[in-house]
Amino acid sequence: MAEAQNSPTLNSVRAGGPLPVGSTTAGSIAVAGESTVVSRMSAPPSFDVADFPVPHGREEEWRFTPLERLRGLHDGTAVAGGTGVRVDVQAPEGVTVETVGRDDARLGRAGTPVDRVAAQAYSAFEKAGVVTVPEEAVLTEPIRIAVHGEGGVAYGHQVIELGAFAEAVVVIDHTGDAVLAGNVEYVLGDGAKLTVVSVQDWDDKAVHVAQHDALVGRDASFKSVVVTFGGDMVRLHPRVRYAGPGGEAELFGLYFTDAGQHQEHRLLVTHNTPHCKSNVVYKGALQGEQAHAVWIGDVLIEASAEGTDTYEMNRNLVLTDGARVDSVPNLEIETGEIVGAGHASATGRFDDEQLFYLMARGIPEHEARRLVVRGFFAELVQQIGLPDIEERLIGRIEEELEASVA
Fold it and tell me: Where is this region: Disordered (predicted)?
């Protein structure tokens, strides 16, 4: 599987675009100097739905999304009803778990909605969940948030806040069937360390659209692991920005897109303070007719963000005919005073040499393919750090592969 890599040079501009199977791209790089390059990452945020026109599918941020499969989340026709979703939180001693009203001052601090669905979700939820880890608390057990769909349309809002020098692992597990739009906020105090594992293991007909905003404090560390398997349509928008120098963000993602599924991950890391780091690695496997995966990776380095060190990578493994991948990495750099910035993207089929090597040693073809896929995802599964979740995800990968040879 060939890989395109690029490290930016001043005043270089390249246009990114969709990836047909087997091709590669280095995406786009824009470096602001004397030029009039306009950021494609600068959609004005707002909490007001009226500030966002109903998308028609030709906008840059919606051109890959099948709007008709959003079930009305994008145009206001999806009205909350039915049993919606049930949210259960299990937290270690010392962690505060609250349900708050819309007027709580802690809501909206990590980020503002950047599209109509996120604004609709913020305007429509009735109660929000707030989980707070106090300063200097180091949790030895994870916080587990189970979101189970029970039918119908639902809007939600969740805040995870860590005090200064606190350390925690949070698992947000989505299962069942629902049409859900929500916003999730992660607020990290100075020196805090947060790992979040967000699992999308929905039933086949579920629709899930969410914006995830992380505000990373001075010298704080944020790690996100997004895992997407189920659902008819899943569109996630992780976003990161920094509240002080020395912050680090790692964004990992794993997705397995099956026949007819649309899974879309759109990331934005905004380096807005000096001497911060970010690393993005997303990997996906696709199989079946009309399986469609979209990955958009945007990194913006503002003029004030000297000393930034960033890299992003997306790899896709296409297992059968009929699948489609769109992979678009982008870098926009407004200062030349950086440590490093680069990106890579690759999409391809099985490596015939790997299969031949395994089969030549007596391993049947279907077993060889299974081993290759497991190896492809192994480094990301290991980032989770929770044996029960890791075993479950390996099991789900095995189920998908067994279905492909059944």
Answer: 1-20
In which band, very low, low, confident or very high, does the pLDDT at 358 lie, cut at 50, 70 and 90?
A: low
pLDDT of residue 215: 98
Same domain, 282 and 371: no
pLDDT at 81: 83
- For residue 203, which of 171, 172, 232, 235 has the smallest C-alpha distance? 232
Is 307 found in the same domain as 275?
yes
Q: Are 186 and 158 a contacting pair, CB within 8 Å?
A: no
> What is the rounded (10 degree) CA torsion for 222, 277, 105, 79?
-70
- Dihedral angle computed from the Cα positions of residues 331, 317, 386 and 296, in that order, rounded to the nearest 10 degrees: 30
Helical H segments across 228-298, by residue range: none
Do 258 and 305 lie in one domain? The reply is yes
The pLDDT of residue 32 is above 60? no
Both 384 and 356 in one domain: the answer is yes
Cα–Cα distance for residue pair 305/53, rounded to 1 Å: 32
Residue 374 is part of which domain span?
352-406
